[in-house]
Amino acid sequence: MNRIAIYGNRHQDEYLDELQCFFQKLDSRGCEVWIKDHFFTYLKSRNLQFSDNVRIITDIPEEVECVISIGGDGTFLRAAEWVGNRGVPILGINTGHLGFLASYSLGEVDELVDVIINDLGKRESRILLTVKCDAMPEGFLPYALNEVVVQRGENASMVCVHAEIDGHFLADYLADGLVVSTPTGSTAYNLSIGGPILQPTLQCFVISPIAPHSLTMRPLVVSSESSLKFRPESRGKTIRVSLDGRDFAVDSGAHDVIVTKAPYSITVLRRPSSNFSELLRNKLFWGK
Fold it and tell me: Does the first or last residue of the chain, that is N or C, have fewer Cβ atoms within 10 Å of its Cβ?
């Protein structure tokens, strides 16, 4: 794979030398490179130099074979939104904090370029969530790779979320909110509120309450073929629905939020030797 699109965030000042080396390495190996416009503008403002093989883009050209995300996990999520249903694999280079979705650092330029060009990366298919709600604004992207969150709005009142699975009543959750997580997102918000860690390639979701007002409300793993329906109510006027950090308001008690598996998946490109156990040890210091 030598036709590469690059997506990054604008917080790379401490990595500029490594980034310059990375782009030079891609050029020396004969790669065709496209860079997302906002990232290119940032890099040029920091005086990085590019060859004539580098082009500026807004959308991903059809000929692109791989997308590289440079940043943290949030940047990877935005890159996944950018890729959408095109099926192009995404490789993450971590310049953020945890970088759970990334396989490489900028200190491993030689190896990661070899992996990309020779198509040696381990491909993992990751399911997404999709949301249907009458209150969703026009043009709002209804997909999430990590999680969908239904939570209280501007005031401190708890919410009551009437929950159904496949048309059958589950429970009325009294809590600060609910998180519906994919296996990919199980190590994100879900983990921080006591939800289980899942192997990222599993076909399931986790429903985890946020600060529940009952000890009987515990995280629940359900099939990814399930249809989840939530009707949130609160003393406040509005409730927030968030998809990977992008949110919109729902009037209390007025709208259903329906969550199902998205009609497409995202392909994550990982280090050839990577495995789930190693990921837990290296990223979450499992057992240490």
Answer: C
